Amino acid sequence: xxxxxxxxxxxxxxxxxxxxxxxxxxxxxxxxxxxxxISPPSRRPLQQGDILMLDTGST
Length: 59
Hints:
Blueprint: H1 3-16, E1 25-31, E2 50-56
Antiparallel strand pairs: 1-2
């Protein structure tokens, strides 16, 4: 699953679980860690061994 799809899935699930809004969602994933969480999510598929981090300002 591409990282951009992970973001969409997280946002949908948060809203389904009762979050009022998910106005802020950043993150990153890569082998051995992530370097940048400010850039938009990429289309690179998650791979076994990736470390995934999501940071959200959900309410």
